[in-house]
Amino acid sequence: MKYYIVAGEASGDLHASNLMRGLYDEDPGADIRYWGGEKMDAVALERQGYSGLVKDYREGAVMGFWEVFLQGRKLLRKLRQCQADILRWKPDSVILVDYPGFNFRVAEFAHKQGLRVFYYIAPKVWASRESRIRKLKAYVDKLFIVFPFETAYFSRKGVDFIYKGNPLIDAIDQSDALSESRAAFLERTGLDDRPFIALLAGSRSGEIASMMPVFSELAAKMHAMPEFADYQFVIAAAPGRTEADYDLAGNGSFVHVVFGETYSVLRHARAAVINSGTASLEAALIGTPQVVGYRTAALTFLIMRNIIKIRFVSLANLILDRAAFKEYLQYYFTADNLLSELRRLLEDGNYRSRMAADYAEIRRRLGGTGASKAVARAMIAEMNDGSTI
Q1: CB contact at 8 A, 34 and 52
Q2: DSSP class of residue 126?
Q3: Structure pTM?
Q4: Which domains does the chain possess?
Q5: What is the distance between the alpha carbons of residues 206 and 336, in angstroms, rounded to a whole number?
């Protein structure tokens, strides 16, 4: 069968690539065309022998109300390109991965063309913009959710869904990063053996530009403290970005950039400062002590503050429904606040132990392995006869 997948950011590229592996396993004749990134492309080249990439998500990916408004014309052109490509290719199903601002419009279009529409990784309507549930019901044939707390919510809202666990468990447990020795990692990346703090600024140009000044100030202040003078700071940079995206002016030799090695950087770091998102859950599953921080455009934050209905922005804290780690947002996202929390993470053994216990509970709640393949099997069953497995 022919599958058309649309993923619009780094986390979508990761989850879609693992879903693609499941689709190829369950349907040896699968032909997959996609909007995504290098992870999806690598799977397609390996399994079907050619690239099905239409558009790389890194070409202008944006988030936030104000940022989307500023790039509205570009997004509209991309949407029309996607719609035209779907019409030409005539897939058996369209699979949308998160990225709701764009993908809801694709869902409406595909549905009106009579195509089967699956939505993988639910838009976060439980956090904001609950009115989108109407679109889920109208344009999506089956929703595939990935968090245990979503089951009760979507049941109450009358949305037809399937839950097969969380694909991050597979992505992390199967990663080479978890078996590679520290010595091998350091040799491969050119880092020395000093302890380091991981810094994760996200994958979009806007959020990187917003996070980096605070990261730079944090690194300078911490490096100036005698007890931390030997520490390094390693930026886990997004694939496809360049060092120019991560302005390191004035940080000397104690700040380094490593591209496409997020899991390895997290595994070998003493602690991490993380832009809220999928990476905070990845750090919890890997076991890295962390503090989350986030800053966006002032207008975007003002709008978000008035419509978001959840207590936390980090997925790991949402899964627990309590704070496993601190979150510093917008005006509280300062070098001084981050430094204070990092010192506690490094110096307070009991604090780290409590966080590790919370991490174990998060992993338990997410369930076991095999989610991506189970979702692929369920999608194929839906396409064949409407039943689920």
Answers
A1: yes
A2: T
A3: 0.83
A4: 2-165+370-385 (3.40.50.2000), 174-366 (3.40.50.2000)
A5: 23
